[in-house]
Each structure stands twice: as structure tokens, then as C-alpha cells.
Amino acid sequence: MKLGFKLIAEAYGPLEIVEQAVRAEAAGFDFVEVSDHFHPWVSEHEHSGFAFSMLAAIAARTTQLELATGVTCPFIRYHPAVVAQMAATTAILSGGRFTLGVGAGERLNEHVVGAGWPAVATRHEMLREALEIIRLLWAGGYQSYSGKHLQLEDARVFDLPDVLPQIAVAAGGPSAARIAGELGDALFVTEPKGELITAYEKAGGSGPKYAEVPLAWAPSADDAAESARRLFRFGLTGWKVQAELPNPVNFDAATTLVTADHLREQFACGPDVDRHVEVARQFAEAGYDHLALINAGPDMDGFFGFFTDELGPALRSAVPASSSSR
After folding, report:
1. What is the rounded CA–CA span in Å between residue 227 and residue 275?
2. With bands split at pLDDT 50, 70 and 90, how would you rate the model's confidence at 323?
3. Annotated catalytic residue: which of 33, 106, 110, 125?
4. CA distance 277 to 319
5. For the segment 71-118, what is each residue's pLDDT rounded down to a tens digit?
6. Cα gap 120→138, rounded to integer Å
7. pLDDT digits over 267-290, tens only?
8. What does R_g of the chain's alpha carbons equal in angstroms?
9. DSSP symbol at 289
């Protein structure tokens, strides 16, 4: 079992994100993962730094911490050839500590280049083609590709790491989980659904299984729940909504009636270590072995201290170990 920390790039500026990663390593986390967005989700979010610049800075400031995107859409805002190059360079700069997390994206981030927003079935076809292109370029040499949606013409990634990054594919349903099993090295989810692991493994997947665990630490459970409402109420809309709305103002409108009590149903809120372990255990018992903890609370310094002194040791002793690891 590996424990990671979610870097919330929509809620904190790029310099603070890098500092949080440094603190996460010092606090005893095994890895960090950072969202790769162009826009933030809601109006309370006031940031959205470029993920790969932040990862490069984190790589230079840390020594053991593993890094990941959580996640990159590799086929609209970016061409997969550019993603192949970015990921290869990040792997080199981090000394092989980087995992490329990919997914089918959200309109929130991809519509900005004016290329339209395809239906989900089309996006899954595009994701497959993007992964094929990335793998092709990582094989070395000049490569071309002609797909239904994506093209590559006589391209080469010149700087490749000695060990290629693993690719973790995000899945909210069985179709994406099958893509993860067929074309990825790992699975990435946000819900403790064992059926996604089943679909992933039936499609040939055998690698790490990443999951984001929703927590909010504060000395007061009420303060923690209110902070979670401010920062993560968009998460209660579900992926069918999250993938389709174009801007923060739309998510503000969609979440007008979400209360702090609604967030308590999904997030472990407050200082009770047993409640945090209870929420994390759901993911571990479902079979996930790389748990990225979200802190939606208002005090990051307090959370890191809580993790070092209480939560980290409690999780490592309470959640079942897994044979899967990098």
C-alpha cells in the first residue's frame, strides 16, 4: 500500500503547490498527484497552474517522492505527441519517479482550444488512439500514425528516459476501465468501486490501482465540512455533469443547493482519525493500493502534522497491504 497526497492546483497557486509537495515528502507521503486543468471548477478556486511546470519544479525540490498527473487529457487541448514529449521529459527530470495519469477529459478544460467537445464514446476512441501514439513515440525513432480521429506525421521524441513512465488510465465506468487494462499500466479512480478493478483485470490489467480518497481535516468537523463544500462541492455532481459543463460559473449554478452536510456523506471531516481511516479503508478493501489523500480542509500545515503524527501510522497499520506496487 502506498499513500499519496492530492495537490489541488485549482485552489492553490503554483508556488504553493510546489511547497506542498515538498512538505508532503517530509510528512512521509509516498507520492503526489496533481490535476492538469486549464480552468478551475468553481468560483472559490482562483488558480490553475500548468501541471508539467509544477511537476518539473517538484522533481527538482524532492528526492524520493513519486509524481503523477491526476489526470491529463491527451487528445484535445494537447496532441498526444506533445504529451509523449512532456511525460518523457518529466520522467527524466524526476529520475524515473513520474507516472502519466490520463483520462477522457472534461469540457471545462478542453473546449478552450475551440475544437469542440465530442460525445463520450468518441472521446474513448480518441483516448485509445492517443495512447497508441504515445506508445509508438516512446518506442523511439521517427513515427507516423493515421487514426480515425488523430494523426501523427514523421515525429520523434528525442529525449526518452531509460525506464518509460507508467500510464495510469482514469475510469469512472467499465468502458474506460477496459481501456486501462488493454492500453495502460495502471488504473485511476475517484470512487471505491470494485467492479472497475474487475473490468480492468479482465481486460489484462495487472498494475497499480490509484484512488483519490476524500478527506477534510480541521480541529472542528463543522469547519472541515464547510471547507469541503467550498472547494469540492462540484464533485457531488457526478462525472456525467463534471465532464460536460464548460466554466466555473456553470458549476456554481449546478451546486447552489449543495450543503456542508452533503459533503459529510462522502468526506471524512474533522479531527477524528478513526473516521478518516474508515473512509480510506473503503478504497483499500475494494482493492486499490495507491491511495491519494485529498485534504479539502482549510489548514494544510495542520493536515501535514496530523498525517505525520496520527493518520499516516493509523492508515499503514489499519488498511490491508497489497502485492501490487510500482
Report:
1. 17
2. very low
3. 106
4. 8
5. 999 999 999 999 999 999 999 999 999 999 999 999 999 999 999 999
6. 27
7. 999 999 999 999 999 999 999 999
8. 19
9. -
Instruction: Judge residue 72's burial from the number of C-beta atoms within 10 Å of its C-beta, 0-12 exposed, 13-18 middle, 19 or more buried.
Output: buried
Residues 6+ apart with CB under 8 A from 314: 273, 274, 276, 277
Please identify which of the residues 10, 25, 33, 37 carries the catalytic annotation: 37
The domain defined by 2-318 carries CATH number 3.40.50.1910: no
- Length of the chain in terms of residues written: 326
Could you tell me which residues are beta bridge partners of residue 98? Answer: 67
2-7/290-295 β-pairing: parallel
CA angle 123, 127, 130 (to 5 degrees): 135
pLDDT the model gives residue 322: 46
pLDDT at 321: 54
In the chain, where the domains are located? 2-318
The rounded mean pLDDT for the chain is: 96
DSSP conformation class of 310: I
How many whole angstroms separate alpha carbon 33 and alpha carbon 302?
20
Q: Which pLDDT score, from 0 to 100, does residue 324 have?
A: 40
- Respond yes or no: is residue 47 known to be catalytic: no
pLDDT band at residue 320 using 50, 70 and 90 as cut-offs: low
Q: Give yes or no: 106 in active site.
A: yes
Strand ranges in the chain using DSSP code E only, listed in sequence order = 2-7, 31-34, 66-69, 98-102, 143-146, 151-155, 166-170, 186-189, 209-216, 268-269, 290-295
Evaluated on CA atoms 275, 34, 170, 187, the torsion sign reads negative
- Measured between alpha carbons, how far is 271 from 219 in angstroms, rounded to an integer? 5
